[in-house]
UniProtKB/TrEMBL annotation:
ATP binds at residue 58. One of its GO terms (molecular function) is tau-protein kinase activity. It comes from the Eukaryota. PROSITE patterns: PROTEIN_KINASE_ATP, PROTEIN_KINASE_DOM. GO terms for biological process: cell differentiation; intracellular signal transduction; microtubule cytoskeleton organization; spermatogenesis. This is Protein kinase domain-containing protein. It comes from Callosobruchus maculatus. Pfam families: Pkinase. Coiled coil: none annotated. InterPro entries: Kinase-like_dom_sf, Prot_kinase_dom, Protein_kinase_ATP_BS. Keywords: ATP-binding, Developmental protein, Differentiation, Magnesium, Metal-binding, Nucleotide-binding, Phosphoprotein, Spermatogenesis. Residues 23-255 form the Protein kinase domain.
Length: 255
């Protein structure tokens, strides 16, 4: 049994299904609320050269997830993942389901996520931050043009490739923001991480999800150049006070 199989309690039949399609799960890369992400190997058995490539695989086990996640958020994520294609959004290789588990195979980001990167290497230079901000902004512009809001923009969801390009990931909270007639829909569900949430989201008011995405993008930029959070409190009321009182400071080196 592989370490992935042990972490996931994969049944031998599930391992067999994966291997019959050319996939093998290896060690764990990361984990979120209801999913674990593994490094994976894919061998295209139909290709002449049978080359093997590395991918990442997000495994969602719905037997361990709450009802609203299974009925609402996961179907939205899968529906959006199959429609999007952009140079700064992580490329989806394939998705399949077996019993209670969904396997989302995607491009592997060799340099991990932006939060890990900043914690390891320190604040990002202004020149590099400019490049990365542009790349995330292009991905968000693409989504917003398609009337999709991400709703969970944070450093952990910006992945870095071997060439140091940023790719946006994790569409677990994303949704369409217009109805069938093109009318704007507001959100009321609180999504994402508190520190990245806009004031109107923290106040629990109906909010415009595209606008709230732009707030989170600003928080990402602040963290990139400062290696610190602009607003940091586990208490929602105090966090909101910090935001509206504009009590933040830039690192002295930031111009
Ligand atoms: N393609 C990838 N390449 C490398 N690492 C990845 C990849 N996808 C995800 N990861 C790692 O796994 C972590 C969790 O992935 P992801 O955010 O998709 O899971 P999640 O369960 O939706 O998370 P959350 O509950 O925080 O929203 C990421 O922060 C990242 O460190």
């Amino acid at each position: 049994m592989t370490s992935a199989a042990q972490d996931l309690l994969l049944r031998p039949s599930e391992e067999l299904t994966l291997s019959s399609r050319g996939y093998r799960l290896m060690h764990k890369l990361g984990e979120g609320s209801y999913a674990q992400v593994f490094l994976a190997e894919f061998t295209n058995k139909d290709a002449d050269d049978k080359t093997t490539k590395l991918l990442a695989c997000k495994v969602v086990d719905v037997s361990k997830a709450p009802k609203d996640f299974v009925k609402k958020f996961l179907p939205r994520e899968l529906d959006i993942l199959v429609r999007i294609n952009h140079p700064h959004i992580i490329h989806i290789h394939s998705i399949f389901q077996r019993k209670t588990k969904y396997f989302i195979f995607m491009r592997h980001a060799e340099n991990g996520d932006l939060l890990e990167f900043i914690l390891k290497k320190g604040p990002i230079s202004e020149a590099q931050s400019r490049v990365w901000m542009r790349q995330i902004a292009l991905a968000i512009q693409y989504l917003h043009d398609m009337e999709i809001a991400h709703r969970d923009l944070k450093c952990e969801n910006a992945l870095i490739t071997s060439n140091y390009n940023l790719k946006l990931a994790d569409f677990g909270f994303s949704r369409f923001v217009t109805d069938g007639q093109g009318r704007k829909l507001t959100s009321t569900t609180y999504c994402g991480s508190l520190s990245y949430a806009a004031p109107e989201v923290l106040r629990g008011m109906p909010y415009h999800p595209k606008i709230a995405d732009i707030w989170s993008l600003g928080v990402i930029l602040y963290i990139m150049v400062n290696k610190a959070m602009p607003f940091d409190d586990t208490n929602v009321k105090r966090l909101h006070e910090q935001q509206v009182n504009r009590r933040w400071k830039f690192r002295s080196k930031v111009k």
